[in-house]
Amino acid sequence: MTGLPDGLAEALSYAASLPTLVVATDFDGVLAPIVLDPMTSRPVEGTIEDLRRLAGRPGVRVALVSGRDLATLSQLTGVELDGPIRLVGSHGAESNNRRDWGALTPSQTAILTRLTRQVRGLRDSARGIRIEYKPSAVVVHTRGLADAEKAAATKGAKALGRQPGVHRKLGKDVVELTVVRADKGTAVMDLAAEVRADAVVYLGDDATDEDVFERMGPSDVGIKVGPGETAAKWRVEGPTQVAEILHLL
C-alpha cells in the first residue's frame, strides 16, 4: 500500500490478527469527500464493498457511525437497515439494532418543536443556511455561506444550544441541536463491549469523532482523516487513503 503513515499498516495487521475486531467509520469526509450539497455525497468506489467483506469475516463487526439520521445514512451508503453492518445515526442517538431509538419523551418532543421554530427564525439573519431535520435534532448547515452570514448563523445556533434540555454538537460548518444526549464514543465503545472486542479500528474526520479517539486503548487504531487537532494516533489525508486502509484490512 502507498501513502500510509509509518507504522499504520503494522498496527492494522496486529488488530486484524486478534480474535474479535470492531471496524467503525464515519461517512462524510471519510468514506465520501465533503461536498456543498450533503445529499449528493457518495462513498468512494470500493469502500462499501470492502466494509461488506469485512462484515462477512468471522470475528469482525462493522459499523457506520455518522451524524446523519439513520434513514439518510442507509440511503446514501446503500447499506440495508437489516443487514450485517451496524448503522449508527445522529451521533449515536439512532441505531438499527435498537427498536426504541425514535422514542422521545413528551418533554423532549415539546423542546424539539420549540427548537425547530427558533432555528427557522435564524433565516432572518442568514438566509442561505440549510436546515436539516432529524427525529431528535435540528441541524444548521452553513457551508458555502459568506463569512458574515456564517458567523451570524453559527452564533445564533450556539446560543439556542444553551437552553435547558438542548445538547449542542459542533462540526465542520455544522451546529446540531439535539434533545437526546448521545455521542459517537459511547456508541462505538458500547458495540466493542457488546462483542467483547479485542481491538477497535476507527476512522473519523470531525470534532464529533474525537469522542471515539479519546476513549481508545493501546490495541486500538484511531485514524484521523484530514486536518485538525486530534487524539488519534494516526492521520491520513482523505477518503482515497481510507479506501486503501479498508482494502488492506
What does this structure look like?
The longest helix is centred in the middle third of the chain and has 16 residues, at 106-121. This protein is globular. The strands form 2 sheets. The chain has a 7-stranded mixed β-sheet with strand order 4-3-2-1-9-10-11, with helices on both faces. Strands 5-6-8-7 form a 4-stranded antiparallel β-sheet, covered by helices on one side. It has helices spanning 8-17, 47-55, 70-77, 106-121, 147-160, 184-195, 210-213, 239-248, and strands spanning 21-25, 60-65, 86-89, 94-95, 130-134, 137-141, 167-171, 174-178, 199-204, 221-225, 234-236. The protein has 249 residues and is an alpha/beta fold. The protein has 2 domains: 8-100 and 183-248, 3-Layer(aba) Sandwich (Rossmann fold), CATH 3.40.50; 106-178, Trehalose-6-phosphate phosphatase related protein, domain 2 (Alpha-Beta Plaits, 2-Layer Sandwich), CATH 3.30.70.1020.
What is the gist of this entry?
The protein is of the alpha/beta class and 249 residues long. It has helices at 8-17, 47-55, 70-77, 106-121, 147-160, 184-195, 210-213, 239-248; strands at residues 21-25, 60-65, 86-89, 94-95, 130-134, 137-141, 167-171, 174-178, 199-204, 221-225, 234-236. The protein folds into two domains: 8-100 and 183-248, HAD superfamily/HAD-like (Rossmann fold), CATH 3.40.50; 106-178, Trehalose-6-phosphate phosphatase related protein, domain 2 (Alpha-Beta Plaits, 2-Layer Sandwich).
